[in-house]
Structure to design on (259 residues):
């Protein structure tokens, strides 16, 4: 135990020294060195089990990713928003899951500064860099979803995303509306996106729009129930089960009836 505590202290000193030696211009490289220093093979192998698709991992627990994100956020928070977004883009480019989460955490902390002008940046990240469900959901539930709540004119963009050949962009079109749907917002748009994705063959997309409907049912249970009944003949069972998960048992039974 003493040795582990000693090594943790040493790693902290090393990372702080790296910041000092490299300067702010190389902060991304400093973060990458720190991620490597805190990674391990056991967590990498364990982490891979959460994903069906191939994923690049350093290998560490979520608490460690958050700790590193917080530490370097304090180093960059005084920079202009545009520079922080550029640093985030560099993190996304590596393809490493942990770097994407650091980038998203930083954008979440920029919430009060993010404006409509930044939507295209976030949209580009969805299209170019998102490659797994966790990055997709973390980015879209919060930064993208918050932006759409503030600027509903981007709902049309979400509907266009439903036609993308990229499974993660299609999933993003739905999971972006999870938080607004829970608040009872945008119900007609929720239904329109669900209809556009209704017969999608990809299970990750089915789970995404089913989750969106489930979120909408918290404020509009009867309306979502009627939507499910109307479409259950062609709605994939995966999406249907997600959509009715929070409904009373009698409703769930009726929704699951065949014929």
């Amino acid at each position: 135990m003493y040795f582990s505590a000693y090594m943790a202290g040493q790693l902290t000193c090393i990372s702080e020294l790296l910041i000092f030696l490299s300067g702010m211009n190389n902060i991304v490289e400093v973060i990458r060195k720190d991620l490597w220093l805190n990674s391990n093979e056991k967590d990498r192998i364990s982490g891979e089990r959460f994903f069906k698709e191939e994923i690049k991992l350093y290998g560490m627990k979520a608490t460690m990713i958050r700790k590193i994100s917080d530490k370097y956020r304090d180093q960059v928070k005084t920079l202009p928003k545009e520079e922080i977004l550029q640093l985030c883009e560099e993190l996304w480019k590596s393809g490493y899951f942990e770097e994407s989460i650091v980038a998203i955490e930083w954008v979440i902390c920029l919430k009060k500064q993010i404006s409509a002008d930044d939507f295209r940046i976030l949209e580009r990240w969805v299209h170019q860099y998102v490659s797994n469900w966790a990055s997709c959901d973390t980015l879209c539930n919060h930064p993208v979803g918050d932006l759409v709540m503030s600027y509903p004119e981007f709902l049309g963009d979400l509907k266009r995303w439903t036609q993308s050949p990229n499974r993660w962009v299609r999933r993003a079109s739905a999971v972006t509306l999870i938080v607004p749907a829970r608040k009872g917002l945008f119900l007609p748009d929720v239904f329109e996106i669900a209809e556009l994705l209704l017969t999608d063959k990809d299970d990750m997309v089915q789970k995404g729009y089913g989750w969106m409907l489930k979120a909408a049912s918290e404020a509009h249970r009867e309306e979502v129930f009627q939507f499910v009944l109307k479409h259950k003949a062609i709605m994939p069972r995966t999406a249907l089960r997600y959509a009715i998960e929070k409904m009373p048992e009698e409703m769930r039974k009726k929704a699951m009836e065949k014929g």
The radius of gyration is 21 Å.
